[in-house]
């Protein structure tokens, strides 16, 4: 069956969204034995994602109208290369975070303070997963709002699961920022609907004219999404929320949730507003991104706690992503910049999840994560420290990691557009990342003759961190096929004449 | 037109409140004011189409938006309650907080 725009019709996108939702409902009804069931469900959802990916790979982009309802009232899903790439990385991080969480939330786990309640973690994580999948697949801007809101609410609740005393104020602040962001986005949706009378991402692109309504919508939606993806001056909520959440939650939030709102912003700027962007508008997010790289790195250098260091590193790494806006609007560099941003998201998700999981192991073993007191960590947790090291290589951007490929693509986009300032920022950001990663290593790799005093960490928690770290290296070795495949059905790669992406 | 303007004014007032007012409960109230502004604006969009009956799409959006706003408010109130509990009772035993 062929849809209205000639894209084949397929039910798989709906399964990918519905499966975790059904799983979440089942978990709420049956609270017992949820760890094994949770891992099983995560494997099942990943299997569905792989099936959809296989279809997109074979048949090209897929399109679906849920329940057969047509466009403005019906819900439209669209699976193209970038969307499926995001689904796959979510599934990859999700499976290993689930394996980790099964041990992390196990009743009576030895060592460390009592952590959040497993019977709440699993359904919330499945709801978050369903919302993320819906976000990546949505083909209209109002569904994006709904998905954004569910992502926000479930992430806030996951942060509040932690029994850390700083987690509740952090969660409340995160909730207010998230609500403000999505409300601002919704106002943008209202303005766009008023201006164009349509909600579909693809139909809006042609219907927009450079009018005040469209510019107001652009700035409101950008402001809202920038707030949610923690770009430099609006990042204040991220470090406390991500640093105080339970370890698997920190990994999921830092690796997937902030990137998800960036992904929406990326698609909006290049696909909806691509034709009407005023000259120079893209410079502002780029400059803020550059500021974020420096500010986040400096804060990471001075952070006292390991998880806070990693959270500030997320602020810095998100800065790189925002460089795509000035670089992508340069003539001839759009394709490279898009590739760079997509690859950066994927590589950062793997590496950051691995680092947060490894930090969770340190926290579990030592009972605290004050960097100065973590001497001898490598004697006690060799596997976790190895994972931290490998993922650190990707965060810094050394070959042969996925982070290296992404930074290399950013650099070549900057060189192609002759934006020397951004070239300098990208290179300096790498040095700063090296500095903050090695600051931790200088303590963790110090030899303590009598051995550090700390508890034991379940083996599956160590190995899932290592597996994700290894994937961040694998991404560096398989860049070309992955990138080719993520471009499936992406209009930006063959931009039309006359737009701002010639 | 009047309704859309009123919506924009409410939205701006609410945003101002969320950013400026320090108390979390008032922030939640301000968020609801801003939300109402957006919904009013959306509803007024239904009339812009020159047709004998109003456009149903904004109504569908407002209904969804209200559901989202109610659940968000519930979560925010719950967190504020938890915060209040934490600040009045010293957390000696972190296990009996729920």
Describe the overall structure.
The complex is a heterodimer of chains A (502) and B (98). Chain A is mainly alpha-helical and 502 residues long. In chain A, helix 10 runs parallel beside helix 12, helix 10 runs antiparallel to helix 14 and helix 12 packs antiparallel against helix 18. The longest helix of chain A has 33 residues. Chain A has a two-stranded antiparallel ribbon with strand order 1-2. Chain A has 20 helices and two strands. Chain A has a domain of 217 residues. Chain B is mainly alpha-helical and 98 residues long. Chain B has one domain: Orthogonal Bundle (Helix Hairpins). Chain B contains three helices and no strands. Chain B is elongated. In chain B, 31% of the residues are buried. The C terminus of chain B is likely disordered.
Approximately what portion of the residues of chain A adopt beta-strand conformation? under 5%
End-to-end Cα distance of chain B? 48 Å
As a whole number of angstroms, the C-alpha radius of gyration of chain A is 22 Å
Largest sheet of chain A: 2 strands, antiparallel
Query: N-to-C SSE series of chain A?
Result: HHEEHHHHHHHHHHHHHHHHHH
CATH class of chain B: Mainly Alpha
**N- to C-terminal separation of chain A?**
34 Å
* Uncertain regions spanning at least 5 consecutive residues of chain B: 91-98
Structural class of chain B: mainly alpha
Q: Based on CA inertia axes, which overall geometry of chain A fits? A: globular
Largest interface: A-B, 32 and 40 residues
**What is the typical, i.e. mean, pLDDT of chain A?**
86
Oligomer, anyone? heterodimer
Label the CATH architecture of chain B: Orthogonal Bundle
The proportion of residues in beta strands of chain B is: under 5%
Low-confidence stretches of chain A: 110-116, 493-502
Question: How many domains, in number, for the residues of chain B?
Answer: 1
- The strand count of chain B comes to 0
Radius of gyration of chain B: 18 Å
Helix/strand class of chain A: mainly alpha
Integer average pLDDT of chain B: 85
């Amino acid at each position: 069956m062929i849809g209205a725009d000639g894209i084949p019709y397929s039910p798989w996108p709906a399964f990918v969204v519905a499966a975790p939702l059904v799983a979440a409902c089942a978990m709420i009804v049956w609270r017992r034995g949820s760890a094994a069931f949770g891992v099983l469900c995560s494997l099942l959802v990943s299997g569905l994602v792989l099936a959809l990916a296989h279809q997109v790979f074979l048949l090209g982009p897929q399109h679906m109208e849920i329940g057969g309802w047509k466009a403005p009232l019906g819900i439209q899903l669209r699976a193209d290369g970038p969307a499926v790439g995001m689904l796959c990385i979510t599934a990859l991080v999700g499976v290993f975070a689930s394996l980790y969480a099964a041990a992390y939330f196990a009743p009576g786990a030895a060592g460390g303070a009592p952590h959040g309640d497993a019977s709440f973690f699993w359904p919330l994580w499945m709801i978050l997963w369903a919302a993320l999948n819906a976000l990546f697949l949505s083909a209209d801007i109002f569904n994006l709002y709904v998905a954004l809101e569910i992502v926000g609410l479930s992430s806030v609740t996951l942060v509040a699961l932690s029994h850390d005393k700083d987690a509740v104020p952090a969660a409340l602040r995160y909730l207010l920022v998230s609500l403000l962001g999505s409300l601002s986005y919704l106002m943008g949706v209202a303005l766009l609907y008023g201006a164009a009378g349509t909600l579909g991402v693809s139909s809006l692109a042609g219907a927009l004219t450079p009018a005040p309504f469209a510019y107001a919508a652009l700035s409101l939606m950008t402001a809202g999404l920038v707030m949610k993806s923690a770009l430099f001056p609006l990042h204040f909520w991220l470090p406390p929320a991500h640093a105080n959440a339970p370890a698997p939650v920190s990994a999921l939030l830092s690796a997937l949730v902030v990137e998800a709102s960036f992904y929406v912003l990326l698609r909006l700027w290049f696909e909806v507003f691509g034709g009407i962007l005023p000259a120079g508008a893209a410079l502002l997010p780029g400059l803020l991104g550059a500021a974020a790289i420096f500010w986040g790195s400096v804060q990471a250098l001075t952070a006292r706690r390991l998880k806070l260091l990693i959270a500030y590193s997320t602020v810095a790494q998100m800065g790189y992503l925002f460089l795509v806006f000035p670089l992508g609007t340069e003539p001839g560099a759009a394709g490279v910049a898009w590739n760079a941003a997509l690859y950066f998201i994927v590589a950062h998700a793997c590496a950051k999840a691995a680092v947060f999981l490894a930090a969770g192991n340190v926290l579990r073993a030592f009972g605290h994560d004050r960097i100065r007191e973590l001497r001898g960590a490598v004697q006690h947790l060799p596997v976790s420290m190895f994972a931290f090291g490998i993922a650190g290589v990707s965060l810094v951007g050394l070959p042969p990691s996925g982070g290296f490929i992404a930074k290399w693509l950013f650099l070549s986009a900057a060189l192609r557009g002759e934006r020397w300032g951004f070239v300098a920022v990208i290179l300096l950001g790498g040095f700063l990342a090296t500095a903050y990663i090695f600051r931790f290593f200088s303590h963790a790799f110090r030899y303590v003759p009598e051995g550090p005093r700390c508890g034991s960490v379940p083996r599956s928690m160590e190995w899932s961190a290592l597996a994700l770290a290894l994937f961040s290296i694998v991404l560096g070795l398989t860049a070309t096929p992955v990138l080719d495949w993520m471009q499936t059905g992406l209009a930006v790669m063959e931009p039309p004449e006359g737009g701002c992406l010639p | 037109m009047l309704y859309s303007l009123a919506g924009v004014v409410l939205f701006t007032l609410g945003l101002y409140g969320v950013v400026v007012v320090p108390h979390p409960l008032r922030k939640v109230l301000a968020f609801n004011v801003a939300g109402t502004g957006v919904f009013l604006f959306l509803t007024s969009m239904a009339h812009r189409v020159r047709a004998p009956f109003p456009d149903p799409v904004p109504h569908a959006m407002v209904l969804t938006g209200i559901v989202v706003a109610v659940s968000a408010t519930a979560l925010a109130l719950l967190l504020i309650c938890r915060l209040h509990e934490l600040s009045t009772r010293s957390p000696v035993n972190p296990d009996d907080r729920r």
